[in-house]
Amino acid sequence: MRFVWRILLALLAGTASPLVTVSAQPAQRSVLVLDQSSAGLPFNTALASTIRTTLNATSKQPISFYSENLDANRFFGSRYEEDYARFLIAKYRDRHIDVIVTVGVSALDFILRHRAETWPSVPVIFAAIDEASASRLNLPDNVTGLTMQLTLRDMVGVARIAVPNLRKIALVGDPLERQTFYRHFKDEIPQVASQYEIIDLQNMRMADLKDRLGRLPDDAAVIYTGIYFDSEGTSYVPAELVSTITAWANRPVIVNVVTYLNQGAVGGYIVQAQPIGRQTAQVALRILAGERASGIPVARVPSALIFEWPALQRWKISEADLPVGSEIRFRPSGVWEQYRGYILAAAGAIVIQAALIGWLLLERRRRQTAEVLARSSMAELAQRNRVATAGELSASIAHEVNQPLTAIMAQAATGLIWLGKEQPNLPEVHAALADIKDSTARAAKIIASVRALFRKDDTERQAVDLNQLVLGVVALTRIEAQKRRVQMDTQLSEGLPLVACASVQMQQVILNLVMNALEAMEAAPRRLLRIASGLSKPGVVRVSVADSGPGIAATDVERVFAPMFTTKSRGMGMGLSICRSIIESHSGRIWVSAAEPSGAIFLFELPTGREG
To answer: Are residues 442 and 501 in the same domain?
Structure first.
């Protein structure tokens, strides 16, 4: 039976052992930060936060982070430390700590005194301890850390920059022996006092401090360390009092902690939490990786020389007097710094707009040049069109000119007969000469009209009666119409308003339309050409030319005015294109529609001129 139980226990043990193996995980690492100051102070909060974020960002495995505050500025004594040590022992009884980080010399002293009863074998890293205090430490095994640059000598050096004739140093803050970060200043006081007069403004009532700060001599500067308690026992946050101190003081205020900046102080060698926190976390990671703390040498974190621009301006401190490498903060941004994005965007927009405007101007110039060339070409084509038409109208022109010449010859012969009589009939001679004069004037008018029609374009616009232009074209083409057996009919409205146009160009439009109509009716059995005029609406004159020819195919209506389009075997396709160009240049329109019962009607409209 015992043998069976042994077998069962062995089986149970065999099945249980894998669970133990699976559940076994690497021990979680943990870091405890013990800060000598009270909780919530800006500098110390930033330091602890930087340590934590650096650990979490760099470590490949989770790290538990604990934080405690000794509050040594306000609570101290052996009994308090013993009670606090018992508190830590009880609180972390069930917590494994791998690394202890102490912030400040008081926290390090506490851990070293109570290490045996708290964490005897846990490595310790100290941070934010001044170099002088660290040099006096007799570090035990498994302890390392980082020192910071924090001396009264540096603050006096900055005071000498702010006040070139410096003779007096006003110390503002808690008594040095009660402070943690600045306690070592008391060792430097004798050397400073040998060169400058020390004005002790420590541990005062706030009302008295305000009065004294407002009456400092011109050769004085203020060095502010920090006020945790005034003489009446009121507790303060040192960083929150900087703006009050700088407002009360009639002399420059020197500080050396980053959380004291941007409140009116001049600045100085500034201790910054982030560099200290990052380097401390890097040392902790090395220890967590297996290095012994004793094997890591103590490192120094220098303080940056930082000045505030508003204070430099207030105390008329020249930038040229600042040490090389000084950083100036809170300088008001110039227009470029404040609005650089907007300026670049506006400049880009201006450049783009300028490029577009330049391109548009270039295109406008090209267009104007093209328009000039087009007008010249169109004028040349129109001139050639008129010359070509002159050949077709030669018979009509000759007939029109021949009529007054024949009349002149007849009247001259009649006058000679009346003069050859024994009793010359002077009244008849006078009448014959008058007829000769009228016929000569008519011939001159016909010749002038023909010359005007076939000369180069005159683009000057005048008030013109379109009915007179129509009648002139009808007279020119009458013989051509008779030769083609075309009946011409005019239906012109009387009293039409005048139209502002170039008369030669408009006469050419009417002539082209009439000649096209005559040619379109060559094979038509019924040949009727009707020219009409009238008002299509107030301020717009319409002229139509209708023929009884075969008309225009529906597919050709849209392109009949296009250049080089023609339905005639000998046509060049430019006549109607010239007509459209002329009409549109006069802000008019021209179109074609079907006539009833057959044929086509070409119509154009023009706005009336001012004279109309």
So the answer is: no
- What's the pTM value of the predicted model, to 2 decimals? 0.56
Q: Which two tokens stand for residue 146?
A: 């980082």
Do 234 and 128 share a structural domain?
no
Q: How many folded domains does the chain comprise?
A: 5
Does residue 135 share a domain with residue 174?
no
Mark whether 322 and 403 lie in a shared domain: no
Q: Are residues 508 and 603 in the same domain?
A: yes
Check residue 43 and give its pLDDT: 93
Domain end (from 102, 127, 148): 148
pLDDT at 388: 59
10 lies in some domain: no
Provide the pLDDT for residue 459: 64
**Which regions of the chain are under pLDDT 50?**
1-26, 611-612
Reported residue count of the chain is 612
Structure tokens at 18: 């894998």
Task: List, for residues 107-132, the tens digit of each pLDDT value.
Answer: 999 999 999 999 999 999 999 999 99
C-alpha span between 208 and 204 (Å, rounded): 7
Question: Which pairs count as long-range contacts for 20-27, CB under 8 Å and 24+ apart, including other chains?
Answer: 26/61, 27/96
Structural domain that includes position 411: 393-455
Query: Can you give the pLDDT at residue 23?
Result: 36
User: In three state form, how does the secondary structure of 480-546 look?
Assistant: HHHHCCCEEEEEECCCCCCEEECHHHHHHHHHHHHHHHHHHCCCCCCCEEEEEEEEEECCEEEEEEE
* Strands lying side by side in the sheet with 99-103: 63-69, 29-35, 99-103, 124-130, 143-148, 299-301
Residue 569 CB-half CA count within 13 A: 1
Give CA–CA dist 473/483, Å, rounded.
16
